[in-house]
Amino acid sequence: MNFLSLSLFFQFGIFFVTSLTSSFLIFHIGKYLFSRFWLLDNPAPYGHKRKPVPLGIGSILYLNFFLLSIFLHPLLSDINQGRLFIILVLGAIVTLVSFVDDLDTIYKFDRASKSDVKKTAEELGKMRRDTPFFVPAKIRLMMQIGVGAIIGITSIKIGYISNIFGWVLYLDQYYVVLGSLQIYLIPLIFTIIWYVVVFNSVNWSDGIPGLTSGLSFVTLLVMAILTIKLYLIDPSPLSQANSVFVLFCLAIFIPSVLISWLYNIKPHVLLGESGTMFIAFMIATLAIIAGGKIATVATVLGIYLIDAFYVILMRLYNKKNPLSGDRIHHLHYRLLNMGMSENFVRYFVYSLAFLFGMAAIFLDKIGKIILFFVLIIIVVFITKILSLKK
């Protein structure tokens, strides 16, 4: 039987099952190889009483996506083959730079150091030693801007923004011509901002094992439901092609994120920057291709988008670098500092993300507006509300 003659959703299912199987095998092999070559985290300086586990194994997410993309490529239209190529090239850059940063994390602390308590970011900074793998924050930010800029001058760019208030803002009105290249200025700026925000929001959620991978799984699941809805209700050729491409990518990517989540909860492995940043890149990119539905994805990630802005404001208020790390202001740290268990924090965040993501798909305008303000109140004031109950 010809594979192309099968129904689309059956094809998605085949890719999903194949990815689930390959992800499971590759993660097992990766776990062995990372342990064999001592690519392990150093839990002692952070006060964790556990054995070192493989760190940076999230790079396997890219490997699995790349391998299955070889079989996906012939099934796509010319424009989506080009988009897949862009995703693979930029994804490789994001993963490679982030994996180098993971190597710095692996080697920056003396493995002879012991500790029974978690240290502050300042104390950890004093303990670190120089490594050849250190990637300065400015370089990481430049990478994020560069990725957004490249996407912004391709067919993947953000051409318009729809939102919960019902109107659509078209961005592709002003452009400059450089040779044969037509660059739309406002979409370029918005695309860069979108990538920087998503990269850092997802990265900052990485405070508890399994939190980022679980939140990302929920985000991708909601995106899949949204894309199926768009595929069924919008018969236009462009929308159909975009939806099919996104669903194929999700059929490959969701299983590997699911496997990484299950491995990451205990944790048996740590995804590291390489996994976190590639996940963020895929979320940001597929959200644009799926009809520019960044508002829906922003709602799912709203917990950490709002949390990110809250943390930045608090750091500025305390006269600290807004991009510096701390263990105080992030939502998960605030809940942990109140005595909540890691399991409670994880499933609290997962539940909120899924609830607000589904609401963003199915509620009307008024419902979405109300939900948006409820989300702000929950993220900013949840610890104060729980303190009053105590």
Helix percent reads: 55-70%
**Major sheet: arrangement of strands:** 1-2
What is the assembly state of the chains in this entry?
Answer: single chain
Overall pLDDT: 83
Uncertain spans: none
Overall geometry:
globular
Order of helices and strands: HHHHHEEEEHHHHHHHHH
Radius of gyration: 21 Å
- Provide the β-strand percentage band: under 5%
Using DSSP, what is the number of strands? 4
The total number of structural domains is 1
* Amino- and carboxy-terminal Cα gap: 64 Å
Q: What is the number of helical segments per DSSP (H or I, 4+ residues)?
A: 14
The profile of the biggest β sheet is: 2 strands, antiparallel
Helices and strands: which structural class?
A: mainly alpha
List the helices and strands and how they pair.
Blueprint: H1 8-36, H2 59-72, H3 78-107, H4 121-127, H5 137-152, E1 160-162, E2 168-170, E3 175-178, E4 181-184, H6 185-204, H7 211-233, H8 237-264, H9 272-289, H10 294-300, H11 302-317, H12 331-337, H13 342-362, H14 365-389
Helix pairs in contact: 1-2, 1-8, 2-3, 2-8, 2-9, 3-5, 3-9, 5-6, 6-9, 6-11, 7-8, 7-9, 7-13, 10-13, 11-14, 13-14
Characterization of this structure:
This protein has 390 residues and is mainly alpha-helical. The protein has one domain (3-389). Helices cover 67% and strands 4% of the residues. It has 14 helices and 4 strands. The strands form 2 sheets. The chain has a two-stranded antiparallel ribbon. A two-stranded antiparallel ribbon has the order 3-4. Helix 6 packs across helix 11 (302-317) and helix 11 (302-317) crosses helix 14. The radius of gyration is 21 Å and the shape is globular. The mean pLDDT is 83.
